[in-house]
């Protein structure tokens, strides 16, 4: 789900309700990118269009530009992590989160450049570094820099630091809020570029903007979730150590739900809790309003979730994501490649095609460690009776009497099972990161355009 490029138009299928028109998705995504560029450029526009202060030299002005650019990008991060559907819809939530990650690195690099240039060429402007003796507005800037540095380090090395996900989220939120407030206090306190009403209005707007996103994310949305709880109605063990949790809505069901999307799930906790994780909705919208999550224990939280008793109350925030056949309403067919528990969003898309009696061909390559760990294999086999589905199991360690594909899904497996006329079909990939990296390289080398390769990224943080 990484592209905004319109899908193939070789089959004149009528647009169905719920399907995303590629042209509208493209326009939507392009508009969001323009808004992001405008948000970053706004400080510079206000400064240039109002009374500009006397120049302190090229290096001084460049340092000020780095600082203002860094603060604009930092403010933008609250929108990128706020799960605002109008932002995530064109790109997919995973791509938005990755953008947040890389832009955060960029913001910190600009902050370091801002401080470094002043330290090297305009050191008197920094005053004393001792926070007990320095002016408060300068100390605020250094607090902001330390907070944003800590954000980057704790995020990149979370697993090495053995930070549980919920502890990391609380720390991340505290550091982000403290850092942003300290940065704005620094800008207002220094006052070099905030000496007119328009300039002060700019920073007031930035402050109110990121506070509004925080309020919506951590107060308004949980309040709405509290009014619309869900109940766990079944917990079924599947092959491959996967458990299928089925939830029924007590209030409003999911709205505008598409196959292959995911939701954030909280079970047995307050809707205001920071303990939540994203899981693919493995059933199709046509089989709602109940929803199903297929969960494999890969950590402490998921190990607890698979033990969830029937009757437990849950809260669902979703749907999100763009890994859906609805993004390719006019495609002549689909290639789907899954590894391990990555089969769950593929399964959701197949259920939707089955419910719609869709005649288009689907080739599914499904990699599993062993034959016994091939989750939902009976369900997939049954789907062949109702879908134009070619199912190819690829078993890493096959049994002695195995007659099918074995090992990894590599170039040879792709060549044997994907005819040449499938190169311009949408390719939906979901699985571990190394598998996706290898497959994207192999598929492009075989002639599949990048715009026809969509993939679901497992870890958002």
Protein traits:
single chain, 461 residues, alpha/beta, Four Helix Bundle (Hemerythrin (Met), subunit A), Rossmann fold, 2 domains, six-stranded antiparallel sheet, six-stranded parallel sheet, 12 helices, 46% helix, disordered N terminus
Report on the structure:
The protein has 461 residues and is of the alpha/beta class. The protein has two domains: 22-225, Four Helix Bundle (Hemerythrin (Met), subunit A) (Up-down Bundle), CATH 1.20.120; 328-456, Nucleotide-binding domain of ferredoxin-NADP reductase (FNR) module (Rossmann fold). The chain has twelve helices and twelve strands. The chain has helices at residues 22-49, 58-80, 85-91, 93-121, 136-156, 165-190, 197-227, 300-305, 343-355, 377-383, 411-417, 433-445; strands at 230-238, 242-249, 262-267, 277-280, 291-295, 313-320, 334-339, 362-368, 389-395, 405-406, 427-430, 453-456. The protein has a six-stranded antiparallel sheet with strand order 4-3-6-1-2-5. Helix 1 (22-49) packs antiparallel against helix 2 (58-80) and helix 5 (136-156) runs antiparallel to helix 6. The two termini are 17 Å apart. Mean pLDDT is 86; it is low at 1-17.
Largest sheet: 6 strands, antiparallel
- Count helical runs: 12
* Regions with little confidence, pLDDT below 50 for 5+ residues: 1-17
CATH topology of the largest domain: Four Helix Bundle (Hemerythrin (Met), subunit A)
Strand content: 15-25%
Oligomer classification: single chain
- CATH architecture call of the largest domain: Up-down Bundle
